């Protein structure tokens, strides 16, 4: 079931992003959000892997230079655009954003930004996979820069927990946000390429990562055999890869995290405390709400480095600057 999440926006939207507001297009393009939702729903019906792709696309847009649509630029094809970074390898869902933009341009030309479409599509993707339903502040404008070098310092699967915390902090995100945004791995898959080191050459002292539950290690190795096809994909959330739920955090607690960066969340006092906070004896009744906290972290991430007012532009097509 979906969870309706009421969020008091003023509590966590910084002054620099105060021009974002829920219902920004209410008068200028009243059907904007329903158009995006319809496009995402149709795309998901054709390809059930689209929600995870759209969620990843939003993260990859925001975590680089901010939520300003630079990840969408594909022209001119110089090889030096942000999307060309190996850190963005395998990004999908750009065609869904392009489709939504085309429909919106036919209804409200020059009004709805590509950056807002990405943020709305991510929310709709979460809702379609039984995740929380929440309001997305809009009013972003599209950036005018897309540079491959800007993606050099993105969080990586093999980053230590201290490096991950530092990279998130540099974007104004807390240790709690790190845990919750990593929990987006509740849907989607990863390639065996990202597990090779963890399974077969983890360190000089251990062939495999000792944090992997011993009962889980043979399962991972069977799915991703040594010297096998590194492009084989496996669910990031064991047992619940197509549904948005808290199972990803249960797996992290139990040593069933698939990728190293997820496992690292339980190897640090601060992030482990966040994970554990959702599993207290009376957690379901009196503890924090995972769904609401996740939605709040998504909104916080969605306000990173936004262009508003007269900054940036409203692109005519999402893949090229005006």
From TrEMBL:
List of residues binding heme b: 185
KW Iron-sulfur (keyword) present: no
Disulfide bond annotation, renumbered to this chain: 29-108, 62-67, 114-318, 192-224
Site (Transition state stabilizer): 56
Signal peptide: 1-18
Similarity remark: Belongs to the peroxidase family. Classical plant (class III) peroxidase subfamily. Belongs to the peroxidase family. Ascorbate peroxidase subfamily.
Protein name as annotated: Peroxidase
